[in-house]
Each structure stands twice: as structure tokens, then as C-alpha cells.
Amino acid sequence: MPTRLHTVGACLALLAGTALAAPNATPGATPDSTLDAAPHAAVVDATPQWITLGTGGGPLIRRDRSEPANALVIGRDVYLFDVGSGVERQMVGAHIPMARVRAIFISHHHIDHNADLGQVMASRWMFNQYTPMPVIGPPGTEAMVDHLSEAMRAVELAPIGAGAGGKKPIRQTVAPKDLALDMDTPTEIYKDGNIRVLAITNTHYHFAPGSKEAQTARSYAFRVETKDRTFVYTGDTGPSRHVEQLAQGADVLISEVIDIPAIRAELLKAPPSILPRDQLPEMIKHMEEDHLTPVEIGKLAAAAKVKSVVLTHLAPGSDGETDLSGYTNGIAPTYGGPVTVAKDLQRF
Question: How much is the pLDDT for 44?
């Protein structure tokens, strides 16, 4: 009869042969887990690729589109930009091993963009990834990491295969950093041998002046420069001169998009138990002011002279959508470059 250790070993072997398989693996090909141990065994494509892990906007859980998450892959290294619910499963679908994630960037603290941060932290810890991973995001990111680590204390006290020396505390495996409260010009926030990341505040929030929210909540767009290509990720934002400045000359603009008539219809259908009627006007106003319509995306892309546009964070992004024209109508009059309505797990 197999022992528990045999069972665990079999599970890990299965992970090594499937979840960690190379993106274009064929039967009999060397799995990435082996390559991780012997990187000289194969040539790795170092061309930067942006992968839209999740393309559905908002906190709804869908079948067709996962919540917002993106991965920039450069050779063997991976950088995550937002980690909405389902990100780890999407990483498996994209053949991205957790062990290769070098840093996480969070655009803002809406739940659809940070929901699985704790899951990623716990998974790295479980599989003995102890190198402190930068987690960079809006004010409150450091406190969030602290509290998530504290909440997982019960997990730390029930380790599997900890070995004689035990496992490090989860908090020691992450290195959170809060971005500056106000960032009015593109500002470098991270740099390593692969990428340089700049950030700027955008216009996703319009809180009343002097309110607690106005003093603490911020949303950011990111510019990622590599030696080959430059990517700009808007995060969630309304029309923004800041984002236009950040995006100048980018090879790929990864932009959120909203179909206002469609999202308004969805909100009007929501039962009062989910969306009380007295909250409806404010919610519609938020959708209209704090997100990007196709018309605004066209203006942004043209003004920034970007080479291509990828649309993600589709709102409403409902299951079964076949007509995607609501996400693109209005771009062409001002921007003539290529535009793609992204699907989950597409590479750009």
C-alpha cells in the first residue's frame, strides 16, 4: 500500500510533468522542471511576451473570462500585473510555473485586481520559494501583505514536508512596497536585468475632496520597458493625461475597455439585493467617468502614438458574448493601428 509520502511524491511528480511543462511541450519533451535544474539544456526564447491571463472586468466570476491578471514573460522570468481571482489556474493554462515569478505589481485595490494575492503568496511558500518577492502597489499594499501573512498563520502551523529545519514564515518570502501617494510624472518603481517599470497615477477614482478615500486610495498605470519592446498597462482608469504621457511611443498599449450601453443594461437588471436602487446612479456614474470607452481609447492611442492596442478588462465581458463591436466601435476614427479584443491566455 502506498504511504502518504509516496502519494505526495506522486503528486509532485505529476506537477513537474504537467503544470510545469514547457509552453510548446510535445510528448517526450523535457519538462521545464528539469530545465529549471539544468537551464543549459535548452535555448529559451527571450522575446518579451505579454499574456492576458484574465480579461473580464469587475468582480463577477465568469466561465469565459477570468478576473484581471497579466503576465509579462521574458525568457525564464515572469512578472505579474494584477492578480484577480483565478490567476494561479490561469498561470497553469499559460504554462507559467509559480517558481519563475519575480515580482507582482498591483494597479489598485479593487478586489478583482488583488483577490488572489494571498493565494500566490501561500503557493510560493508551500513549494519552498523563499526568495523575498517584490509586491509593489498602491498605499495599503504593505499592510495587506502583513495582514494576509498573519491570517495564514494557521497554515504555517500545519506544514507538509517541512523538513528538519521547518519552513520560513510566509511574511519573510515577500517584500511589499507602497507606491507614492501622488505620482504626477512617470516614475521608476522597479528595475532589474530584464525590465524597467515606471508608474503614474490615473483617474479611476473621483472621491469627494477631503474624504478618507481621497486621502488614501490611488490607482496606477504601468509602463514596462525591455530591451526589445515597451508595454503600457492602463490598469483601470478614465480619460487621463497622465496615462497619455506614460504611453508615449509604446509598442503595445494594454487598455481596459467598457461598453457603456451594455454595462448600463446589466446594472439595471441587477436585483436590488445585489445592487440597491439608491446606489444605481452612483454606480452608473462611476462606469461612465472612471473607465475608458472605445472613443477615449482611440484618442489615447493616437495621442500617444502607440504601435498597437490590446483591449482587456472587458466590461461587462459577459459569458457567451459573440458581438464584441461595443468594445471597438469608436476607436477607428482617431486611431488606425491594429486593435485586438483579448481573450484569456492570449500572447502579445
Answer: 60
